[in-house]
C-alpha cells in the first residue's frame, strides 16, 4: 500500500519544469510564489464531484481534463495568464492505473498553458477533485462581468450546444449509434479553454464570462452585473455540423446552444468600434468568434430569429434549482 507521501511524490511532484516565479512548490507547509510588479493575481476554485459532474467510471483522463479545463476557462474569462494551480484530490482508494491516466492528462493540459502545480491535498473519500488556479493580469486590466453598455456587441467563441449533446450520449449510450456521438462525447470532456483569446481581449472586451451554466444563464450574469439587457439573434448562434446532424431539428439545436452548460466557451461584449479588432483576434488565433446580438437597456434577454420575435422560456443549469423550487 502506497503512503500518502509516496503517492504525492510518485504522481505529483517533479512532473513539470519549475516556473521562475515559483520559489517553493509542493513539499512544505505552503507553496511560495512571486508576483511580478505591475500584475494582479486572479484566483478561482472549482470542484468536480463523481455523480454530479461526471460518472464515477468515466475515463480518468477525461475527468482530469475537464476539471482543469473548467478552471482554466475561469482564468480565460478574466483575461488572466495561467500561472499556478493547487489540487485537492479525494480518492476512494489508491488505483495506480487510474492515477497514472489522470496525471498524464492533467499535466498535458497544464504544461500547454505553463501552469505549474504548486501544492494540494490528498484525502480518502468519494471521488472529487477541487482545483484552485491562479493567473496573472496587468493591474486594472482584468475582464469583469460588469462593464457591458448599451450598444455593445455580444460575442461567443467556438460553437455552442455540443457539451449538452455529449452528455445525452454519455447518459444514454445505447440510444446513440450516430457517427457524431463520439465527437460530441469528446466535446463534452475535452473542451479547449479559450485562454489565448481571453488575454487578447484585454482592453477590447467590456465584459466577459465563460459559459459553464449555459449561454442564457451566463449572459444573464453579465446583464445583472452590468445593469442592462440583451437582444440575441438565434439565427447567428454558432452550431457545429455534428450537432445539427445529431439533433436534426433546427429549433432543438438552437435550444441546446442557448442552454448547454460546461461549454467553456467565452461570452463577451465589446463596443461597436472594436468589432474589427475582435474579428482580427479570431483570425489570428484561428478560433471562430461570432457576434450573436447586442446589449440593450431593458433588464432582459430578448430572443429573435432574424427579426421575428420568439417567446422561448429557457434557463441554464443550476445545481440547487429543484431545492429552491420546493
Ligand atoms: P499538510 O498536512 O501540511 O497539509 P500535506 O501532507 O497535506 O501537508 O501535503 C504535503 C505537501 O504535499 C504539501 O506541500 C502539499 O501542498 C503537497 N500535496 C499534497 N497533495 C498534493 C497533490 N495532490 N498535488 C500536489 N501537491 C500535493
Ligand atoms: Mg494537507
UniProtKB/TrEMBL annotation:
| Residues noted as binding Mg(2+) 5 in the record, renumbered to the chain | 213
Q: Which residues bind Mg(2+) 1?
A: 45-46, 121
Q: Which PANTHER family match?
A: THIAMINE-MONOPHOSPHATE KINASE
Report domain PurM-like C-terminal positions. Answer: 150-304
* Residues where Mg(2+) 3 binds: 29, 74, 210
User: Keywords for this entry?
Assistant: ATP-binding, Kinase, Magnesium, Metal-binding, Nucleotide-binding, Thiamine biosynthesis, Transferase
Protein's GO biological process: thiamine biosynthetic process; thiamine diphosphate biosynthetic process
Instruction: Give the gene name.
Output: thiL
Species per Swiss-Prot/TrEMBL record: Vibrio agarilyticus
**This protein's name:** Thiamine-monophosphate kinase
Can you tell me which residues bind Mg(2+) 2? Answer: 46, 74
Is Nucleotide-binding among the key words of this record?
yes
Amino acid at each position: 500500500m502506497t503512503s500518502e507521501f509516496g503517492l504525492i511524490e510518485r504522481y505529483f511532484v517533479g512532473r513539470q519544469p519549475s516556473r521562475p516565479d515559483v520559489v517553493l512548490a509542493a513539499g512544505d507547509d505552503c507553496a511560495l510564489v512571486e508576483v511580478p510588479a505591475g500584475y494582479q493575481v486572479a484566483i478561482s476554485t472549482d470542484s468536480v464531484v463523481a455523480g454530479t459532474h461526471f460518472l464515477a467510471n468515466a475515463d480518468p483522463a477525461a475527468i482530469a481534463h475537464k476539471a482543469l479545463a473548467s478552471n482554466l476557462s475561469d482564468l480565460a474569462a478574466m483575461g488572466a495568464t495561467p500561472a499556478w494551480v493547487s489540487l485537492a484530490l479525494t480518492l476512494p482508494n489508491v488505483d495506480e492505473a487510474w492515477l497514472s491516466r489522470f496525471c498524464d492528462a492533467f499535466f498535458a493540459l497544464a504544461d500547454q498553458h505553463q501552469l505549474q502545480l504548486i501544492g494540494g491535498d490528498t484525502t480518502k473519500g468519494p471521488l472529487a477533485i477541487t482545483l484552485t488556479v491562479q493567473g496573472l493580469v496587468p493591474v486594472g486590466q482584468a475582464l469583469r462581468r460588469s462593464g457591458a453598455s448599451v450598444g455593445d456587441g455580444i460575442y461567443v467563441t467556438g460553437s455552442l450546444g455540443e457539451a449538452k449533446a455529449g452528455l445525452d450520449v454519455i447518459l444514454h449510450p445505447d440510444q446513440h449509434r450516430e457517427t457524431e456521438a463520439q465527437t460530441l462525447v469528446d466535446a463534452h470532456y475535452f473542451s479547449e479553454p479559450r485562454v489565448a483569446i481571453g488575454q487578447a481581449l484585454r482592453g477590447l472586451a467590456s465584459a466577459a464570462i465563460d459559459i459553464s451554466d449555459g449561454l442564457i444563464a451566463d449572459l444573464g450574469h453579465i446583464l445583472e452585473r452590468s445593469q442592462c439587457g440583451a437582444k440575441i439573434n438565434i439565427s447567428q448562434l454558432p452550431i457545429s455540423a455534428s450537432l445539427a446532424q445529431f439533433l436534426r431539428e433546427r429549433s432543438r439545436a438552437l435550444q441546446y446552444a442557448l442552454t448547454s452548460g460546461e461549454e467553456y466557451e467565452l461570452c463577451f461584449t465589446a463596443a461597436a468600434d472594436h468589432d474589427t479588432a475582435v474579428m482580427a483576434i479570431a483570425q489570428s488565433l484561428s478560433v471562430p468568434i461570432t457576434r450573436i446580438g447586442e446589449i440593450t437597456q431593458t433588464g432582459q434577454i430578448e430572443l429573435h430569429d432574424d427579426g421575428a420575435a420568439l417567446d422561448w422560456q429557457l434557463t441554464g443549469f443550476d445545481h440547487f434549482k429543484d431545492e429552491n423550487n420546493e
